[in-house]
């Protein structure tokens, strides 16, 4: 897997998390 595809997958994953939890109630990811 090349780097660009990996970055797109990561961005898509973060978008999915934001859509699933728009209010940020209980997100098990470390917020930077």
Average pLDDT, all residues:
74
Main sheet overview: none
Query: How many strands?
Result: 0
Outline the low-pLDDT stretches. Answer: none
Helix-strand sequence: H
- Principal-axes geometry comes out as elongated
C-alpha Rg, in Å? Answer: 11 Å
Query: What percentage of residues falls in helices of 4 or more residues?
Result: 55-70%
Structural class: mainly alpha
What is the straight-line distance between the termini? Answer: 26 Å
Strand content: under 5%
Assembly form of the protein: single chain
Please tell me about this protein's structure.
Helices cover 56% and strands 0% of the residues. The chain is mainly alpha-helical.
Detail the topology: elements first, then pairings:
Layout: H1 3-20
Could you list some keywords that capture this structure?
elongated, 32 residues, mainly alpha
What's a quick, concise take on this entry?
This protein is mainly α and 32 residues long. Helices cover 56% and strands 0% of the residues.
């Amino acid at each position: 897997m090349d780097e660009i595809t990996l970055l797109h997958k990561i961005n898509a994953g973060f978008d999915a998390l934001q859509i699933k939890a728009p209010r940020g109630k209980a997100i098990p990811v470390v917020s930077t």
